[in-house]
Amino acid sequence: MATQALAANGAKVYIVGRRKEALDRVVSVYSPNVDGQIIALPGDVTDKSDIKRLAEEIKQREGGLHILVRQCRRQVSPLLFCSNLGLV
Q1: Which CATH number characterizes residue 10's domain?
Q2: What is the dihedral of CA 38, 35, 65, 19, to 10 degrees?
Q3: What is the number of domains present in the chain?
Q4: What are 1-35's pLDDT values in tens digits?
Q5: Backbone angles phi, psi at 12, to 5 degrees
């Protein structure tokens, strides 16, 4: 799992999904004993307005992204997410 590998190596990792309970479970299972952080942000990456909201939230918290890993079943453009962060 990319989230676990990145956090184990000291990264701050934001995970996004529609179900808060599932996100919280990932955080509780994989956060202990890692050097980094796993932070859950509930949201729907198939909804353009929610992508904009998520991008703004991450931009306010971090200033931007260093890595974007897309692991969803639906076709969602990572370019849309990155453009909302001002990365492209």
Answers
A1: 3.40.50.720
A2: -10
A3: 1
A4: 788 899 999 999 999 989 999 999 999 999 998 99
A5: -90, 120
